[in-house]
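The following record pairs a protein chain with its ligand, 5-O-phosphono-beta-D-ribofuranosylamine.
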Amino acid sequence: MTQRDSVTVLVSGRGSNLKALIQHQSGYRIGHVISDNPDAGGLRIAREAGIPTTIVERSSYATLVDFKAGILKAVTMSEPVVVALAGFMVLLQPEFIQSYHGRLLNIHPSLLPNFPGLRTHERALEAQSTQHGCTVHYVDAGMDTGPLIAQSAVPVMPGDSLETLSERVLAQEHILYPLIVRGVVQGDINLEGRTVRYSSAFIAIAEQQGLRLFA
Ligand code: GRF
């Protein structure tokens, strides 16, 4: 039976956001972790936390379409209320996005709409941005183009390297994602069309945390 608070997390790599989501579980529960990469650090983190995992590998499927259908099947079988992408490197097919409309989240390491796609920290440094940060958004069919839910900004300091800047942003990601996942699971954040609605309780939390919202 579907648990009202169960979140399935999709990871391809290291899994530090998954770890933060596990550590801050309250108001939601990580019920399942799915990866396309059998070597993903995220899988190890999930196993250590006793969370069931499923691997859906591209090489097990004849076509890309079948592979993506396999991902959707694994997610559906895990019966989540919310699906959280956390460093998941596969672009999902439209059927997936429609099935989980308003319940499919991603975290991105930039202040969208700045720097969608990859190499965000390098690009922020190259552009001499004075502010950088991370965004949690609903997923739509584009790459990092879905309705924005919340952002956490950090300053870019003189002399920042790729490492110092990415660490500063990642620390914010680990605070931001659990807050937003909890908000969506608890019904404090909702999607109406492409407009994001927040409860007044959530707006108060966001103000306290210095988050940027998109009401
Ligand atoms: C994070 O920077 C996240 O914003 C991006 O991919 C990275 C994943 O890192 N989508 P991790 O696997 O959670 O450590």
